[in-house]
UniProtKB/TrEMBL annotation:
GO terms for biological process, alphabetical: DNA repair; regulation of transcription by RNA polymerase II; response to UV-B
The enzyme's E.C. designation: 2.3.1.48
GO molecular function, one term: zinc ion binding
Species of the source: Morus notabilis
Higher taxonomy: Eukaryota, Viridiplantae, Streptophyta, Embryophyta, Tracheophyta
Identification of the protein by name: Histone acetyltransferase
């Protein structure tokens, strides 16, 4: 999905069925023309194929043998699993996921070349299978050091900490690559809120531990957060002063504690010991 200049089109599909949820959509998504007359679409929650009628889905579910996203399970902790799907090896799945995601993403247009992306799909697993909660996409090679292209938590799962989990996960991958990363712009309002929340929590925890005696470069090395994002976050928190042509961190312990109290819940943590992954080559 890519930034675009077009105005937002009217939305077409108003509801989708996915697993045990019926979900109201938010935005237009450019499904193939034959779906233009549909108000509701029925998705297979595992392969993400979509159909016009409930009976078609029921027939599909009897023969679909997927019980989780295609690709490699690279993380498992309790009932949470993360799957890495290569858009080149699973083109149809990648395209289906993009169609689905666009229903909840504004300011992005469908980027058809799913070959160039990896999809990280977060699932809650039970005895019926692994149910998609959300995902993020990532370019295999990014010139701009983007470590995340699009992020989505499906509406029934929002506001439970999954978004920050996905963001944390994207930075854990960057740490394993030995690179800094930043999300592709523009960010949506909810995207910005989630990133601000994540950056604030992570940076405040480190500043507290080091009693503020640390540079932006060191913070960036430790967290894989790009220096610019650290600077804007600390500026928003009023923890930066400009002295002799340089930005310096001024972390008064009282100010830190005040911010830490206000910062959101830590929420779902990524347990790095459960991540089994090598960078894409
Ligand atoms: N109202 C106010 N604040 C919110 C809301 C909301 N509805 N939703 C999230 N936030 C803020 C809060 O600060 C929250 O932290 P807190 O609960 O500790 O206060 C923080 O964001 C993160 O909340 P999570 O529960 O971790 O995030 P969630 O699972 O809801 O996912 C996401 C966030 C992915 C942005 C989700 O809202 C979403 O999918 N939105 C639609 C798609 C979208 O806009 N994606 C981002 C586009 S930008 C890009 O892709 C690069
Ligand atoms: Zn299926």
């Amino acid at each position: 999905l890519r930034e675009h200049e077009e105005f937002t089109k009217v939305k077409n599909i108003s509801t989708i069925e996915l697993g045990r949820y019926e979900i109201e959509t938010w935005y237009f998504s450019p499904f193939p023309a034959e779906y233009n007359d549909c108000l509701k679409l029925y998705f297979c929650e595992f392969c993400l194929n979509f159909m016009k009628r409930k009976e078609q889905l029921q027939r599909h579910m009897r023969k679909c043998d997927l019980k989780h996203p295609p690709g490699d399970e690279i993380y498992r902790s309790g009932t949470l699993s993360m799957f890495e799907v290569d858009g080149k090896k699973n083109k149809v799945y990648g395209q289906n996921l993009c169609y689905l995601a666009k229903l909840f993403l504004d300011h992005k247009t469908l980027y058809y070349d799913v070959d160039l992306f990896l999809f990280y799909v977060l699932c809650e697993c039970d005895d019926r299978g692994c149910h998609m909660v959300g995902y993020f996409s990532k370019e295999k090679h990014s010139e701009e050091s983007y470590n995340l292209a699009c992020i989505l938590t499906l509406p029934p799962y929002q506001r439970k900490g999954y978004g920050k989990f996905l963001i944390a996960f994207s930075y854990e991958l960057s740490k394993k690559e030995g690179k800094v990363g930043t999300p592709e712009r523009p960010l949506s309002d909810l995207g910005l809120l989630s990133y601000r929340g994540y950056w604030t929590r992570v940076l405040l925890d480190i500043l507290k531990k080091h009693k503020g005696n640390i540079s932006i470069k060191e913070l960036s090395d430790m967290t894989a957060i790009k220096a610019e994002d650290i600077l804007t976050t600390l500026q928003t928190l009023e923890l930066i002063q400009y002295r002799k042509g340089q930005h310096v961190i001024c972390a008064d312990p009282k100010v830190l504690d005040r911010h830490l109290k206000q910062a959101g819940r830590g929420g779902l943590e990524v347990d790095v010991s459960k991540l089994i992954w090598t960078p894409y080559k």
